[in-house]
Amino acid sequence: MRIADRWFERRVISDEITLLWEPHVVPLMRCNIWHVRGKKRDLMIDTGMGISSLLEAAQDLLDKPVTAVATHTHTDHVGGHHEFSQCLVHRAEAAKLTDPPAGDNTLFLSDFGAKYVEMLQRAGYPCKLDEALITSLPYEGYDIHSFHVKPAPTTFVVDEGDVVDIGNRQFEVLHLPGHSPGSMGLWEQKTGTLFSGDCVYDGPLLDELSDSNIGDYIASMKKLRELPVQIVHAGHDPSFGKERLHELIDAYLKRRDQ
Ligand SMILES: [Zn+2]
After folding, report:
1. Which of 86, 129, 178, 218 is the most buried (most CB within 10 A)?
2. Mean pLDDT, the chain, as a whole number?
3. Residue 258, pLDDT above cutoff 90
């Protein structure tokens, strides 16, 4: 496997929001990492796989205290949390952030089993059983078999309705279970901005993972349909507006006979 020139790419979305991502991670596991600049503190919403240091890669963005938010605790979203001294997670997954499941410690799809990979393929991901989750190595000598999710400090445990205040911006916690029990979004009423995690993104949605619940997912989608959304910055794939959000929700609800 070749060595990557650099592990993270980034795009400035606005004065306050920068998107980072890992181009050498396969699409299934390539999460959006959102840096949100605040007056008092910054947020790093999700942190990627933890294969290479996010803290180092984003050093120039970080000039004040930063809280690493976990929209949920799947490997592709919390791999870098251990680098941050303050981490925020929903109550339902707080224990998983501090004590990641050993089953997540692999970069090979085959370790999840053929049935699981078939489910991902059915959902719409073109992944193969013999595939690795990365397409390049982060540096010379990286041992692809040594991958494991490092425990992170669960500093702030939040619930539905809690407010994450970064000085000039206030985000309300929306509990959006279904993809996983502690999936959550951050919602800023003032600007109609939603960070949706993996509850909704413009790609194949996953509601049959080992910790998913379809009934909860349906309820979360119905809840999101009521929000006066302007822009959704999701856990994967490009951002979108209200019209696309409603298309994605309606397609999901139809697929699940709602
Ligand atoms: Zn996920």
Report:
1. 178
2. 97
3. no
184-223: pLDDT as tens digits: 999 999 999 999 999 999 999 999 999 999 999 999 999 9
The residues, ordered by sequence, that sit 6+ positions from 175 with a Cβ below 8 Å of its Cβ are 90, 92, 159, 160, 182, 183, 184
Between the CA of 69 and the centroid of ligand 1 the distance, in Å, is: 14
Q: Residue 11 C-alpha to ligand 1 middle, in angstroms?
A: 22
pLDDT per residue over 63-78, tens digit each? 899 999 999 999 999 9
45 CA → ligand 1 middle, Å: 13
Domain that holds residue 219: 9-255
CATH, residue 33: 3.60.15.10
DSSP-derived secondary structure letter, 150: P
Burial class, 12, CB count within 10 angstroms (exposed 0-12 / middle 13-18 / buried 19+): exposed
Count of residues making up the chain: 258
Q: Tell me if 196 is assigned to some domain.
A: yes
Identify which of 36, 255, 5 has the alpha carbon closest to the alpha carbon of residue 136: 5
Q: Is 16 left (phi over 0), alpha (psi -120 to 50) or beta?
A: alpha
Whether 4 is covered by a domain: the verdict is: no
Of the candidates 217, 212, 211, the residue with the CA atom closest to the CA atom of residue 257: 217
Using alpha carbons, select from 144, 151, 165 the residue that is nearest to residue 2: 144
pLDDT digit string (tens) for 117-155?
999 999 999 889 999 999 999 999 999 999 999 999 999
2 falls within a domain: no
**Cα 74 to ligand 1 centroid, rounded to whole Å:** 5
